[in-house]
Amino acid sequence: MVNLQDAGVHAGEGEHIRMSLSNFSMAKTFHDINDTNNKFKFIFVRAGVTASFDLFLDKGNYTDISELATNFGEKIRHCLANQNPPIPGVVDTNAVVVPVETSRDNIIRVTIDTGGTHGITSAIIQFNSDESDSYMILGGDRVRSGDNTTNSVAPIQATPANPNPGSNLAQIIISSKYPAQRASMPFVYIRAPGVQNTNIETQGLRNSSDNHNSDVAHSNILGRAVVESSEWVQFTAQSERDFFIDIHQKQLNVLRLQLTDSKNRLLGRLAAGGNTAAGNGNEQSTLGNLSFSAVIRFDIIKRKSVHHLETEHYQPPIPARFSEGNVPIKIR
């Protein structure tokens, strides 16, 4: 929040204020895998009973897709290892997760050796786009809230015991449908809430759960900066009209700026995620290092010259008795 006080920006008649983003820079102190993209659902049927679990990838920056695939498989294995009643032979210390061929096409394929007969007859994995961007990270079809039957990945193979000659291991084989990716946020969006302007944006940039997210509405986006690397988020304008807002109001005394992702969420966290995007503290955006610097330019644009109507002042008529040419009347 910037209080401009007496140095507020003013526009006169026939003028408007243009606010443009000239430069933006911030250290990337938020994780690629975070609260906005690490959640998925694991649903399976065992002994005729359906079980559903919300699972979460570990937050952080992954070095490659294989590391991401291993963590994905570990979360499913850990879920199976803590079932009640227990799955025979499945414990946190002996079940194995093997990522297969992820480096070739970036499609996640994992095999979970459960160490015994798991008893699972069917299973699905879901990536709910209303809750998380995990469908982008793990490479699957997105589903919406209320759908508990659609499978986001390829059909899961839950093999019985002795799947191969000489083997006593029961396996669960999971394959994604599409190439995985290690991050889902290529841009940081700089917004100016409360500033009335003429810009428009699609509804998906404001509220991703909107059923008509391709429709447009008024926008408070001032600009966006590229997440260039694991270190910095930066933007430098190449012209005067890269990113700008034409403001309706004639006077601007207070300016509020907010950083979000492409779905209008706080960086690295959900609405109830507090002031911290990464780490164990609670005040990263107020006392910590989740901060930015920016150069914002204001121009007063003259649209037209205002011409006022000019007329002579009103002159009251002269009374008839004082007007010229009157003939005096004498009365005897």
Write the layout of secondary structure elements.
Layout: E1 2-3, E2 9-10, E3 15-27, E4 39-46, E5 49-56, H1 65-81, E6 96-99, H2 102-105, E7 109-113, E8 120-128, H3 134-138, E9 142-143, E10 157-158, E11 171-175, E12 187-191, E13 200-202, E14 216-218, E15 221-227, E16 232-236, E17 244-247, E18 251-252, E19 254-255, E20 258-260, E21 293-302
Parallel strand pairs: 8-9
Antiparallel strand pairs: 1-19, 2-18, 3-16, 3-17, 3-21, 4-5, 4-8, 6-7, 7-11, 10-11, 12-15, 12-20, 13-14, 15-16
Give the total of domains.
2
Share of helix, binned: under 10%
CA radius of gyration: 33 Å
Q: Major β-sheet, in short?
A: 7 strands, antiparallel
**DSSP strand content:** 25-35%
Question: What is the string of helix and strand elements?
Answer: EEEEEHEHEEHEEEEEEEEEEEEE
* Poorly predicted tracts of residues: none
> Could you say which structural class the secondary elements and strand pairing correspond to?
mainly beta
**Helix run count:** 3
Shape estimate: elongated
Q: What would the average pLDDT be, to the nearest integer?
A: 84
Number of strands: 21
End-to-end Cα distance = 90 Å
